Amino acid sequence: GRGHSQPRPPRLISFVFLQVLLVFAKEDSQSNGFCWACEKANFRCSMARTPESALECFLEKHHDLVIIDHRHSRHFDAEALFNVWVLTCVLLLRPDREEASVMPLINAGFNRRYVENANVMACYNELLQLEHGEVRAQFKLRAGNAIFTALEQSQEAIEIMSEDQVIQYVNPAYESIMGYQQGELIGKEIIEVPKSEKNKPDLLETINSCIRKGKEWQGIYYAKKKNGDSIQQNVKITPVIGQGGLVTEHVYIQSCKHKDRRKGSLDVRSTTSRGSDGSSQRRHSSMARIHSMTIEAPITKVINIINAAQESSPMPVAEALDRVLEILRTTELYSPQLGTKDEDPHTNDLVGGLMTDGLRRLSGNEYIFSTKQPHHIPSHLTTPLSLNDIPPRIAQTMENEDSWDFDIFNLEAATMKRPLTYLGLKIFSRFGVCEFLNCPEATLRSWLQVIEANYHSSNSYHNSSHAADVLHATAYFLCKERVKQSLDPIDEVAALIAATVHDVDHPGRTNSFLCNAGSELAILYNDTAVLESHHAALAFQITTRDDKCNIFKNIERNEYRTLRQAIIDMVLATEMTKHFEHVNKFVNSINKPLAALEENGESVKSILTSPENRILVKRMLIKCADISNPCRPQELCIEWAGRISEEYFAQTDEEKRQALPVVMPVFDRNTCSIPKSQISFIDYFITDMFDAWDAFADLPNLMQHLDNNFKYWKGLDEKKLHSLRPPPE
């Protein structure tokens, strides 16, 4: 008869699985009566015979109802036992003590007494009365405490007021957003709290009319903060229905508009009502955990600063900051996202092949790279060379090794594919590595020879010639003025050693291939930086297993630890999955601050020599040395392009033979366009990195080679040629 639907009664917790503990010293008709009554009521029943077993049983299950037999008090003292229980308890009394006072029992905390009656229906009725009385009351009380905790922890502003609009409660989020303290509001009528003039004149009447009918109201509402500012909120006002269908309280749930991430118009119902996707709740829950962390990571601090800035930001700024937060919460902060699947397949395949840890394996096929013992020095090399013993023909090919245009392939031919030992001897001598390490030249020679022996000469690209090429580039970069200003002697030695060992025992296959094949190395390193971890670990294993080649034997322990850490860090930096992270950190932590200081004529020493930035410089140095082929003179660039392409072709051939996922389908020797692959590699990986490195180290000759080589590959591609070189005239 009220003209609207009856309010829905509060939802009650189901007690179908009520847990009952019977504490009876011995079995009799009364204990059986309660057991059968529990079964009839569909309650779960446990039995204990001693105080000790009763306590153990209760602590395990935390029963909702405990019934203690006090008819035979010599077995145990019910009043003493009660101190254990934290929920509803019932006491059984003998008939001849029925007239005794119940006050001691009430004082002890018991809820009811039961006069001995073994009749199943009597026991059953007693259980039902307890369920609908004391037990439900206990459940509601506990649920109420939990709800109150949830209100206190909620990130939404919540306000509760009585039917006559007297404020009864506000939560901490309300205090934070509105600027009031709880004591300033509790007990005040709502008309005493200033309201914003931005609301429509009839808005309050519309809200009150809705509430009087027992219906929820949802919409946009402007509230006035204590400091006088108006704040736009998404508000949900829910009436609390008491007995007789009368409204007893109102619950206001308010959230600031900019907290909702979604663009376009705001649908308050979808974000606040039950049955929504829950994304808002999940977001606030996760933010609550972040705010509660005692040890904050830098990214957490950034997120918290942005959240705080949102509170007072205008709507467009708040929405933009929401987008910033979405980006910051992703794991791949530095890796660019390719536009569409229709991008150039050469770029997609190259990026996928170099920057992922493989596809999920498609079959049980396994390609095993066995964990073999490292190679020893070949017998014909057991007598170490010295710089003075280097044959003149080989020495002549190394005369210009300090020039960027040095031809590593001439040295490769002159040394019969052992360029690393000879070039290493000369470069390490030039940088005084033996003096720094306090090691004899014979030890260094032995070390270079055994490292080179563990490179695979059968690989077309990842062989000791590549290692020698990277060592040459590293030495060249270490001589640049800005790099010398930044690095210490220990950094230089670490860089030269890291360059020498950075691809040792490379199998001529990518990380993705090893992971897809289920290789022993991939299993050992959990599909993460597999090859780079192996190169670093094997290098130290080879070096330290034999005093004859242990170049670290005579350095002090702490110096060794520092050197080892730097070498490992540089070798791991050559892994391509973190390419963009390393480049972006270098640009933002070094290049941009340097440019700002130089513009103002200030000293740049603090930026160049900080421990964090020295690490970034060393990572950038070895990364650029590792993939500097497109910046070499054109003939050298073309030769390296042919070698890496052949290695990728061989991998694709093997993937097809082994029925493994083909990581880079474009590298099919029958169809691949080498110019296109080089163009993609330069565009995606090389240009930005060498622009940044050139801005730091000043490398105009490299940038000119890069420009010439890019034009060369473009010219071949425009002629639709797939080969390394144009056909003969």
UniProtKB/TrEMBL annotation:
Its EC number is 3.1.4.-. Residues 1-25 form the signal peptide. InterPro entries: HD/PDEase_dom, PAS, PAS-like_dom_sf, PAS_fold, PDE8-like_REC_N, PDEase, PDEase_catalytic_dom, PDEase_catalytic_dom_sf. The keyword Ion transport does not apply. PROSITE patterns: PAS (PS50112), PDEASE_I_1 (PS00126), PDEASE_I_2 (PS51845). It is an enzyme of class 3 (hydrolase). Residues 262-286 are annotated as: Disordered. Residues 143-214 form the PAS domain. Residues 269-279 have a biased composition (Low complexity). AMP binds at residues 462-466, 503, 626, 678. Its cofactor is a divalent metal cation. PANTHER family: CYCLIC NUCLEOTIDE PHOSPHODIESTERASE (PTHR11347). Hydrolyzes the second messenger cAMP, which is a key regulator of many important physiological processes. May be involved in maintaining basal levels of the cyclic nucleotide and/or in the cAMP regulation of germ cell development. Binding to RAF1 reduces RAF1 'Ser-259' inhibitory-phosphorylation and stimulates RAF1-dependent EGF-activated ERK-signaling. Protects against cell death induced by hydrogen peroxide and staurosporine. This is Phosphodiesterase. It comes from Mastacembelus armatus. The lineage of its organism: Eukaryota, Metazoa, Chordata, Craniata, Vertebrata.
